[in-house]
Automatic annotation (TrEMBL):
Keyword Lyase listed: yes
Record keywords: Decarboxylase, Lyase, Pyrimidine biosynthesis
Species of the source: Boletus edulis BED1
InterPro entries on file: Aldolase_TIM, OMPdecase, OMPdecase_AS, OMPdeCOase_dom, RibuloseP-bd_barrel
Name the UniProt record assigns to this protein: Orotidine 5'-phosphate decarboxylase
């Protein structure tokens, strides 16, 4: 049956990618399908937010390049929090170049993403070579890759045939590609042209989640955890400003309350989906 009708626990036991297995295992253990997107520019806020939301999340999503005061010690602090609170790390790098270039961007440079991010993501636009390039670095480190099959923003071009081709690319590399950034499940796509669909288990990570706002002034579109998880069968809700807020000053107590609220909403939506 489709992965979204099975428990996270059952899926953890059967998944063959180590990063996906660890994520599903943590989701079941901590009863959370929440990923917080820590989109702030100061190290102090970044670490304070992660420490506050850590108990409520399975995955912390980073944009490491927006930190103004980045230094390598931030990664050590992030890893310590990851061990303490038990969450995985997802660097939302959205790679989009030829294989040779992305392999260098993933392994090297200032951030050395592959050395600390359990999961990262890539656009499908360059074709299969982007997966080959990233896999050459990530597979030996037991990492997982998420492909962007759809986007949450208004007017996104990743639709129709593009989305279908992204799914085909992922199916050809199920050792490394563990899921999609998408708004729906992808199993029904192109199901006729492959017989591997039956046992495939792609995680659907959905951004554009909010309980209060419907969107922002720059084309972001929000759906509720119930719409995303119960109705559309997605596995992980990615929440940024719904939890962190939009002001310059961070209220860590409020951030923690919101994280708990989204954890409960996401988990209830998952339990409802399984009981249907
Ligand atoms: O389609 C997408 C894909 C991503 S990864 N739409 C998105 O919004 N994202 C990311 O999710 C985006 O880069 C941001 O970090 C987060 C959404 O943040 P929010 O504040 O709107 O919840």
């Amino acid at each position: 049956s489709s992965p979204h009708l099975r428990s996270y626990e059952d899926r953890a036991q059967k998944h063959n990618n180590p990063a996906a297995r660890a994520l599903l295992y943590l989701m079941a253990k901590k009863k959370t399908n929440l990923s917080v997107s820590v989109d702030v520019t100061r190290k102090k806020d970044f670490l304070a937010i992660i420490d506050a939301v850590g108990p409520y999340v399975c995955l912390i999503k980073t944009h490491i390049d927006i930190l103004e005061d980045y230094d390598p010690s931030i990664i050590e602090d992030l890893q310590a929090l990851s061990n303490e609170h038990e969450f995985l790390i997802f660097e939302d790098r959205k790679f989009a170049d030829i294989g040779n270039t992305v392999a260098l961007q993933y392994s090297s440079g200032v951030y050395k993403i592959a050395s600390w991010a359990h999961i990262t993501n890539a656009h499908a636009v360059p074709g299969p070579s982007i997966i080959a390039g990233l896999a050459s670095v990530g597979l030996p480190l037991e990492r997982g890759l998420i492909l962007l099959a759809e986007m949450s923003s208004k007017g996104a071009l990743a639709t129709g045939a593009y989305t279908e081709d992204a799914v085909r690319m992922a199916r050809a590399r199920r050792d490394f590609v563990v899921g999609f950034i998408a708004q729906h499940r992808m199993e029904t796509i192109g199901a006729r042209d492959t017989d591997s669909v039956g046992d495939e288990d792609f995680l659907i990570l959905s951004p554009g989640v909010g309980l209060d706002a419907k969107g922002d002034a720059m084309g972001q579109q929000y759906r509720t955890p119930a719409e995303v998880v119960t109705d559309c069968g997605c596995d992980v809700i990615i929440v940024g400003r719904g939890i962190i807020g939009t002001g310059r000053d961070i209220d860590v107590g409020e951030v923690q309350r919101q994280a708990q609220r989204y954890q409960v909403a996401g988990w209830e939506a998952y339990e409802r989906r399984l009981s249907r």
